[in-house]
Automatic annotation (TrEMBL):
Binding of Mn(2+) 1, residues: D273, D350, E352
GO molecular function: manganese ion binding; metalloaminopeptidase activity
Cofactor dependency: Mn(2+)
Name this protein carries in UniProt: Probable cytosol aminopeptidase
Cross-referenced InterPro entries: Leucine_aapep/pepB, Macro_dom-like, Peptidase_M17_C, Peptidase_M17_leu_NH2_pept, Peptidase_M17_N
Compartment(s): Cytoplasm
All copies of domain Cytosol aminopeptidase, residue ranges: 348-355
Main location: cytoplasm
SUPFAM superfamilies on file: Macro domain-like, Zn-dependent exopeptidases
Root EC class: hydrolase
Binding of Mn(2+) 2, residues: K268, D273, D291, E352
Length: 522
């Protein structure tokens, strides 16, 4: 789908569909009001008949509105005007995208990006409109013999901005939005791929392709190189599979000085998790193909960041393997030695994610990082604690946690700062090794984070437990692409700071005090 930015009046758009908003109590937005005036009150008359009240999530498709050049006008409910915030804006965009797939509109101009959202500017409005639209229209039909022809998406999608002077901001927002959406699509595609396709080798090939496409560096460590590096904990998990493990290293030098400390993203890459000898129940085990959601997310984030050419040095580390039962597999009671030299008593082989991540966190020390963020579908306990709304966030630095939470709030990809108090470390005591790999049912997500913290003492570190947010089950089953938006916004904020710019968050959008001059143009 081709995206464009435009400044122009809605009644002059010679396209298949124009999208405008309606607040509750049938209050028209500026663009909708202009269409109503040119049509001699046609839209107002339709609303007064009760076909639509403007409730958030509602739509009404009108054909052949008098004196307009477009074939259709899609009215989108915005809810109460005084309660219209970022969340409601995203929902309106999502609603409009869904409604458009049920029409044959090949070219669309949306005026929802002209709306006013408190503390947000044109650049943000366009960025979010692009990200949410592409997120909503995403389909995974790669593995189907036929595509679903009942769902049609526009060929050309134009986002309107209030003034000609907003075009440059709109173009910047569009470029960012497309990069983020492409990163999310990559993350979804990888997550949705079946385990017989998305193997450790497949992930490595995808990572190398990204590096080659965007001028970054890629290094893939095979089993021998992983052994030479001393990653005993990682290798212990991989033993049960017929497929060899891979350790992926991507490097992007976007800062002016290549010696600047990089931001390191670590992603858990278990391409299928059977639980190993501590075998999982059969129900919903197919969803364990999503256990490489952390790897997919950091690859998606890396792709977006390098496409945006952020002035940062960024490193991605991905330990990837399968966790399978076999005669060679890791057993409960085994003791393994991590790359750091610390020993681990394995009480449950289904707590394998931390066993591969701990060696990656030790490996990260060599880069002398500005910060390290690991991303993992780590614990079912996090789902019990936070459901499927917020990502669990743990950090050794409160300032890093605050920055990540703020980034998530900015883009609607929320995280919640969880405790990482010293008292919880007691849960990991072992009589036979330096630590156990689980701490029991109570505080399971916290004890998992405590385990990882023991390997991340050399730098500022944060852990994102995305077990509840990386994918959806049920009729909407599939990867969500999270937390790519959060991580990209965090990196964008770091880039703004590095350039001496004010972080975009909270910068108020210019108020429209008169009819935008673009409504005299087409």
């Amino acid at each position: 789908m081709e995206f464009n930015i435009k400044s122009g009046s809605p009644e002059k758009q010679r396209v298949a569909c124009v999208v405008v908003g309606v607040y509750e109590s049938r209050k028209l937005t500026l663009a909708a009001d202009l269409l109503d005036r040119i049509s001699n009150g046609f839209i107002g008359d339709v609303l007064r008949r009760g076909d639509m009240e403007g409730k958030l999530g509602s739509t009404l498709l009108l054909h052949s509105v008098p004196h307009t050049l477009c074939d259709r006008v899609l009215l989108v409910g915005l809810g109460k005007e005084r309660e219209f915030r970022a969340k409601e804006y995203r929902e309106a965009i999502r609603t409009s995208a869904r409604a458009l797939t049920q029409t044959s509109s090949s070219e669309v101009v949306s005026y929802l990006s002209e709306l006013s959202v408190k503390k947000h500017d044109v650049e943000w409005m366009v960025e979010q409109a692009c990200v949410v639209t592409l997120d909503t229209l995403y389909r995974c039909d790669t593995y189907k013999s036929r595509q679903d022809e009942s769902v049609r998406e526009p060929r050309k999608f134009t986002l309107a901005v209030p003034r000609r002077s907003d075009l440059a901001d709109g173009e910047r927002g569009l470029a960012r939005g497309q990069a983020i959406a492409a990163g999310m699509k990559l993350t979804k595609d990888l997550g949705n791929a079946p385990g017989n396709v998305c193997t450790p080798d497949y992930l490595a090939h995808q990572a190398r392709a990204i590096a080659e496409s965007f001028g970054a560096e890629a290094e893939i460590l095979d089993k021998a190189a992983i052994e030479e590096a001393g990653m005993g904990s990682f290798l212990a998990v991989a033993k049960g599979s017929e497929l060899e493990p891979r350790f992926i290293v991507l490097r992007y030098f976007g800062a002016k000085d290549k010696a600047d400390k990089p931001f390191v993203l670590v992603g858990k890459g278990i391409t299928f998790d059977s639980g190993g000898i501590s075998l999982k129940p059969g129900e919903a085990m197919d969803e364990m193909k999503y256990d490489m959601g952390g790897a997919a997310a950091v690859l998606g984030t890396f792709r977006a960041a390098v496409e945006m050419k952020l002035p940062l040095n960024i490193v991605v580390l991905i330990p990837t393997c399968e966790n399978m039962p076999s005669g060679r597999a890791l057993k409960p009671g085994d003791i393994v030695t991590s790359m750091s030299g610390q020993t681990i008593e394995v009480l449950n082989t289904d707590a394998e994610g931390r066993l591969i991540l701990c060696d990656a966190l030790t490996y990260a020390e060599r880069f002398e990082p500005a910060a390290v963020i690991d991303v993992a579908t780590l614990t079912g306990a996090c789902i019990i604690a936070l459901g499927h709304v917020a990502t669990g966030l743990y950090s050794s630095q409160d300032s890093l946690a605050r920055d990540l939470v703020a980034a998530g709030e900015e883009v609607g990809d929320r995280a919640w700062h969880m405790p990482l108090w010293e008292e919880y470390q007691e849960l990991l005591k072992s009589p036979f090794a330096d630590m156990a790999n689980i701490g029991g049912r109570a505080g399971g997500s916290i004890s998992a984070a405590c385990f990882l913290s023991r390997f991340a003492k050399a730098y500022d570190w944060a852990h994102l437990d995305i077990a509840g947010t990386a994918w959806k089950s049920g009729k909407d089953k599939g990867s969500t692409g999270r937390p790519v938006p959060l991580l990209v916004q965090y990196l964008q904020d770091r880039a703004d700071i590095a350039l001496g710019n004010v972080v975009r968050r909270g910068r108020p959008r210019r108020e429209v005090t008169e009819a935008p001059d673009q409504h005299d143009a087409d």
